[in-house]
Design a protein that fits this description.
heterodimer; A: mainly beta; four-stranded antiparallel sheet; about 50% strand; globular; B: mainly beta; six-stranded mixed sheet; 11 strands
Chain lengths: ~120, ~110
């Protein structure tokens, strides 16, 4: 089955701790994205990557870091610098053929991060 | 950047028709997407519009007017399972998708 997996489903973070959220896709998509969703809010883009070993900051990148060493994987680290990390984190992927093309994003099931 | 507006909440009756509006402002429009998101779950793709007009997919249709910066999602023959949030997302020239805050639809018997 092709799809996007995120783990874990729930994650607890202690103050001052870094945590890493996993995102894996077997859709052979070039582009991957990380979003944050807070209650009553839309999705806000944290980071995105259109190709292996390259990524760009989104609208709210402060306090987060990513890597893209493999096409299938795009892990997100929530660092201790992120002061309000409690949120629902969604990973997505899409084909990539340039900004003028339709690239439908497909989402993973999400990880809910809670601060203890 | 884009400014995307959708109503926060709507309520409709089972079997009825509901229209969810989305207005946006862009400097270089490059496509509009509608997603459905059930509570606690991931968004799922519903429709894509890049040219003016109506796109129909079963019970769901999406309309776009680029000159007015306006789109709507039309849901017919509403079912209880249609209770969800509906997200409008717009691509501006050479930038990633920007999502609106979503419209929470409640379908009542």
């Amino acid at each position: 089955d092709g799809g996007i997996t995120q783990s874990p489903k729930y994650l607890f973070r202690k103050e001052g701790q870094n945590v890493t959220l996993s995102c894996e896709q077997n859709l052979n998509h070039d582009a991957m994205y990380w979003y944050r969703q807070d209650p009553g809010q839309g999705l806000r883009l944290i980071y995105y990557s259109q190709i292996v070993n390259d990524f760009q900051k989104g609208d709210i990148a402060e306090g987060y870091s990513v890597s893209r060493e493999k096409k299938e994987s795009f892990p997100l680290t929530v660092t201790s610098a992120q002061k309000n990390p409690t949120a629902f984190y969604l990973c997505a992927s899409s084909t990539w053929a340039g900004w003028t093309q339709q690239e439908t994003q497909y989402f993973g099931p999400g990880t809910r991060l809670l601060v203890l | 950047g884009q400014n995307i507006d959708q109503p926060t909440e709507m309520t409709a009756t089972e079997g009825a028709i509901v229209q969810i509006n989305c207005t946006y402002q862009t400097s270089g429009f490059n496509g509009l997407f509608w997603y459905q998101q059930h509570a606690g779950e991931a968004p799922t793709f519903l429709s894509y519009n890049v040219l003016d007009g109506l796109e129909e997919k079963g019970r769901f249709s999406s309309f776009l007017s680029r000159s007015k910066g306006y789109s709507y999602l039309l849901l017919k023959e509403l079912q209880m399972k249609d209770s969800a949030s509906y997200l409008c997302a717009v691509r501006d020239r050479n930038t990633p998708l920007v999502f609106g805050k979503g419209t929470r639809l409640s379908v009542i018997a």
